[in-house]
Design brief:
This protein is α+β, with helices and mostly antiparallel strands. It is built from eight helices and 17 strands. α2 packs antiparallel against α3 (49-66) and α7 (188-194) packs across α8 (241-256). The longest helix has 18 residues, at 49-66. Residues 124, 137, 143, 148, 174, 278, 280, 295 line the site of 2-oxoglutaric acid.
Length: 302
Amino acid sequence: MKTLSTVEQLTVKDNKFSRCDIITLKTSDKKKFDDISQSLISNGDEQNYQHLISSISQVIPEIKSNLPELVQHVQYLSSPATMVGLLLLKNLPEGSSSIHAPIISSILGFLVKYEGEGDFIIPIKENSNSRETRPSFQNNKEFSLHSDLTYAPEPPKHIVMHYQATNHGGGGHSIFCDVLAALDDLNSDVLSELQKNQFLFTAPSHYKGNSVVKFPILTKDVMSNSWSIRFRKDGLKSETAIGAESVAEFVNAINRNSFEIIPEENSIVLLNNRTFLHGRTAYLSMSKLAKPRHLNRIYINS
Ligand SMILES: O=C(O)CCC(=O)C(=O)O
Ligand SMILES: [Fe+2]
């Protein structure tokens, strides 16, 4: 598996990684970003997300005029012309993390929440009260490559993950896969099985919608001719044996095309939930750490 530094070099050279983008905020931009964020914090209650999101929309013009480079990189994600599906944004200001991720998200689109999934900002951290046996945002189990909300009728278009505390050395590395690269490794029979409406996706217990839904894993949009993915291996069933065999081939292809990021605190990953898969390695339990792993996640549509 490739690590981030190789991805960074390959970003320019190799088509397979050209859909990843990386930006490190310059010190002067970091200061500007922090000043704008601070003005919002003093304006209201940080925990009242609805209020926070409406006040963010008022500062977006200020962000656009003061931080054009940052805005341009975020907007590459919603531009079909660039094909960028993953942006790693490094060197954000420290602290106030619950405001930085919503600001970046608001540049890309509008924040969405799903019944039973939590608020606009969902903390990803171990919760000792959780009884979930599958990999989850509330436990420290390995979470293999997946797209989010596979059990929802309309999964979100983009995901933002803010690395607030990364428990350095204790696991919890992020894994990503550019699905378009993985599809190049599959033959047409497998591709055709994955496009059949024969896969059952099981929702976790906290979800308020249907507990099992049936969808294809791959869909091709006829207008734009682009692929869209819905995939999570745990809780997945195929109605046919050939469908199950095709999933096994697909899993091999995505694993071959995955890469790992050892996340740094105060960085953000934005990704297209329909063209990139994400996952994480298992991590050390919070009881063993002074500063447990903590990410914040936001869903965005445009
Ligand atoms: O813990 C992580 O890094 C990601 C968690 C995740 O993908 C999820 O909760 O859906
Ligand atoms: Fe996820």
